[in-house]
Amino acid sequence: MAQLGRSMDVHVVESEHERTSTGLPHLKLAMWLFLASDCLLFGALISTYVLYRGASRVGPYPAEVFDIPYTSVSSFVLLASSLTMVLALAAIQRGDQGQLRVWLLATAMLGTTFVGGQVFEFTTFADEGLTLTTNLFSTTFYVLTGFHGTHVVVGILMLLTVLALSFAGRLPPERAMTVELVGLYWHFVDIVWIVIFTVVYLIPTGTPGGAQ
Amino acid sequence: MSGRETVEPETTGARARHAGAVTRHPSPKEYVRIAIILAVITALEVVVYYIDAVRDLLIPLLFLFSLIKFTLVVLWFMHLKFDSRTYARFFVLGFAGAITLYLIVLLTFRVFGG
Are B95 and A39 within 8 A, CB to CB? Predict the structure, then answer.
């Protein structure tokens, strides 16, 4: 049994009745396995985008449509949501339901803001003639960012579900792992955006329509 | 000692017991510090994008910044720094798979393709 000294800032002990061969919670292991598989999904989508970068024969081209300052704000929003998510986890680990709800709601709202920004961006691009089937750039761009956006939406639904559980009194500190699992998924969505922002938006494409 | 402690099941491979090894979680202040660093790096990425003088170094710099941000989020926010190594192995497996897939696709179509 672990020794918990009085001088330490001690968590509520997580009640763990599950017996596993690895000694690790099944759900957490499963979430990491899922995230590993999701790495492969986004790896494939990002590879496809990079593969066809600069190969579009007709415009609009990235430099003509991208608004870097606007997308930078989206990036800051998503990064902030990672902070609020981890603060929510810290709150439930110390048994603070009030703070948990505040930070969960903040995370969901920031995520919604991000998705709203993406929707606005997509509609702006569409108005400028960039639709899903316009050219290779548009197809790979929309599929990649669309899948990411869908992941964010799923994350928001998970956050709202956990928030509802908290309000229903069904999320005691002993069930902090529920919040941790949602947090892992949310942070993964954030790190995927870190890669997308760099590879898709910031790295120059080169001559429009020409090879990279 | 900053941060908090929580109890997770034994990670030694022995049979799980009711309470096991103690893992440390960062404090909220640490999380805020990490978030500030992430924000500063993101700002640097955007600044570097607009500076013509470093155009030749743009791609390496952007990759470096992304790598730092990626690492900070994975190690601190996702707790890999403080959790069992098994989780890290799973994630690295997937990440390495993604990188391998990326390289195979690019090499197949860019170097050997018609």
Answer: yes
Range of the domain at A165: 71-202
Contacts of A183 in chain B (CB under 8 A): 77-78
SS3 B56: helix
A:B CB pairs within 8 Å: 195
At A184, which CATH number?
A: 1.20.120.80
List residues bridging with B7 in a β-sheet. B22
List of E strands, A9-147: none
Single out the residue of B85, B15, B45 nearest to residue A199, CA to CA: B45
A24 and B CB contact within 8 Å: yes
ipTM of the complex: 0.84
> How many Å is the Cα radius of gyration of chain B?
20
CB B10 within 8 A of CB B21: yes
Q: Which of B4, B12, B57, B64 to mutate to test the interface with A (most CBs of A within 10 A)?
A: B4
Distance, in angstroms, between A6 CA and closest chain B CA?
A: 12
- Quick: pLDDT tens for B65-93: 999 999 999 999 999 999 989 899 988 88
Q: How far apart are the first and last CA of chain A?
A: 59
